[in-house]
């Protein structure tokens, strides 16, 4: 009996490791997880702006970044050689810095530049974007990159 249980647990572990990287699943998770977590935190603490941002700027940014990073990593089914040979931590760090930097610039542009140069008024919701966008981008990039690397054949640590 213990041998069967051991064999079954090994088969489950192997099937989890070989689970393919499915972009739509990653994007859906990237939207749902922060929306549920931040939304719950907003409701529990009574912060209506956080509850609203959870489903818009936070989860939306996570989903968009997960889609962009996942699509870029897959590269049409043929990953770039350097993305499979670069150590996992280094690849993740480079992509996180890039995506969070781009999201921070977009957040700054939306919160500062846009109200100053257009009829859109400066609001607290726009100010949230300076934090929401880069944090969401960094988390989504980290998770998608690490998930993708577990599904590639050449994955040095």
Number of strands: 0
**Rg, nearest Å:** 19 Å
Instruction: Give the N-to-C terminal Cα separation.
Output: 35 Å
Biggest pleated sheet? none
Number of helices: 6
User: Averaging pLDDT over every residue, what do you get?
Assistant: 86
Element-by-element helix/strand order: HHHHHH
- Low-confidence runs: none
Strand content: under 5%
CA-based shape: globular
How much helicity do the residues have?
over 70%
Decide which structural class fits the backbone: mainly alpha
Explain this structure.
This protein is an all-alpha fold. Helix content is 82%, strand content 0%. It has helices spanning 2-17, 23-45, 48-74, 81-85, 88-117, 124-151. The protein is globular. The model has no long low-confidence stretch (mean pLDDT 86).
Short description:
With 157 residues, the protein is an all-alpha fold. 82% of the residues lie in helices and 0% in strands. It contains 6 helices and no strands.
